[in-house]
Amino acid sequence: MSAEDGEEADGPRATLDLVGQDRALRQVGEMVASRRLPSAVLFTGPRGVGKATLAYRLARHLLAGEPPGANLELAPDHPTVARVRAGSEPDLLVLERASGPKAPKDISVDQVRGLVTRLRMTASGGGWRIGIVDSLDATNLNSANALLKIVEEPPPRTLLILIAHSLGAVLPTLRSRCRRVALTPLEPDDVATLLGRHLGALSAEHRAALAALSGGSPGRAMTLETVLGLPAAVEVLGAALDTIVGGRLPPDQFFDRLLTGDAAGRMPVLSELLGLLLTELARTAAFGGPRHTTSLPGIDAAAAAQAAGRRYAAGWAEVAGTVAELFAAGEAANLDRKQTLISVFTRLRSAAT
Predict the structure, then answer these.
(1) Residues near 142 by Cβ (< 8 Å), separated by ≥ 6?
(2) Are 141 and 112 in contact (CB under 8 A)?
């Protein structure tokens, strides 16, 4: 199983915590209580904010046949919780992009057709049959159209739960036939609370720093800690800001250290981290002060204000888009990762001019 939403190391199948998403949970609870569930629901929002966690909570509740409740929560020792965690619940079908360096980048149309065929089978005990697709961002036009067929002609007592990190990745005709539930970034205190539950060995200061770098995503915070580590993240932010203000590229050893170990896993983390910095610079340029950047660990407020003043907010947004494209192009073309990072930092250096 690939944990697209990344809420914790055990994956959203095993995650019972759902913090900071009361509005979305209330919306889903009202659907269940009305006893008029749509054939498909679409959970949208940034990565790591709890979309898959909510999807599995809804699925567990329906599969257990429990009466409608406010939070759809089951006891940790409930048999359905154990079966879902183990992947042995026969009436829950999960479709995810395969993981691994040689795995296809998309969910294929054949995978979707297999899911559709199984969803049309009779559920055990006459209950619900539920499919979870995590995520629509990994589908292509053909596989998305194959999903559309079962949404348009759903079998009785069947629910399709679709997850999308970007609403723009959802086929418009598919989106229009789903009940959408939007999940939003969490407040830093909520992110720190979840980190305390799942990374309790870290100090409160360490968790607060990760929360500040998470962009409101607990999944991103945990990935940042496990894949890159907070000290390296702070070093990257400082080096990026120094490149912008001072016009100096970091030495080769800096890039070599960043790519030691799981280089492939670190690249998307570095992309998100630099994107966060550039977004903060855009906000600082827009609001005319350093109040947005001072929350980022390792960032000197005066240097951030100086850097932000080199461009208008729209200019920093443009740089952020270019940096994201450089990372994406490097990934798509399997380019040398060190050269990709050097290209990114070269773009940061030119941004100040």
Answers:
(1) 109
(2) no
Cis peptide leading into residue 88 (ω within 30°): no
**From the DSSP assignment, how many helices (H) and strands (E) are in the chain?**
15, 5
pTM of the model: 0.85
Query: Whole-angstrom Cα distance, residue 222 to residue 228?
Result: 10
Degrees, nearest 5: CA angle 171-165-269: 140
Bridge partners of 129, per DSSP, are 158
Query: How long, in residues, is the chain?
Result: 353
Residue 128 structure tokens: 């619900």
Coil/strand/helix, residue 289 = coil
Q: Are 211 and 192 in contact (CB under 8 A)?
A: yes
Q: Identify the bridge partners of residue 180 per DSSP, sorted by sequence position.
A: 42
The amino acid present at 335, given as its one-letter code, is L
Instruction: Report how far residue 51's alpha carbon sits from residue 43's, in angstroms, rounded to the nearest whole number.
Output: 6
Q: What is the pLDDT of residues 229-282, one digit of tens each?
A: 999 999 999 999 999 998 899 999 999 999 988 888 999 999 999 999 999 899
Please answer whether residues 171 and 141 qualify as being in contact, where contact means their C-beta atoms are separated by less than 8 angstroms. Answer: yes
Q: Which residues of the chain have pLDDT under 50?
A: 1-9, 290, 292
Please state, in angstroms and rounded to a whole number, the distance separating the CA atoms of residues 347 and 320.
10
Structure-block tokens of residue 245? 């203000």
Q: What is the dihedral of CA 168, 172, 175, 177, to 10 degrees?
A: 180
Burial of residue 99, with CB atoms counted within 10 A of its CB: 0-12 exposed, 13-18 middle, 19 or more buried: exposed
Q: Which residue has the tokens 């009436």?
A: 91
Q: How many CB atoms lie within 10 A of CB 220?
A: 25
Give the three-state DSSP class for 330: helix
Structure-block tokens of residue 205: 């200061």
> Of 258, 259, 345, 241, whose CA–CA distance to 297 is shortest?
241
CB 247 within 8 A of CB 347: no
Q: Find out whether 27 and 57 touch, Cβ atoms under 8 Å.
A: no
DSSP single-letter state for residue 295: G
Q: Name the nearest CA neighbour of 305 among 273, 276, 283, 274.
A: 283
Under DSSP, the state recorded for 200 is T
Token pair belonging to 186: 């969490």
Q: What's the gap between Cα 132 and its chain centre?
A: 16
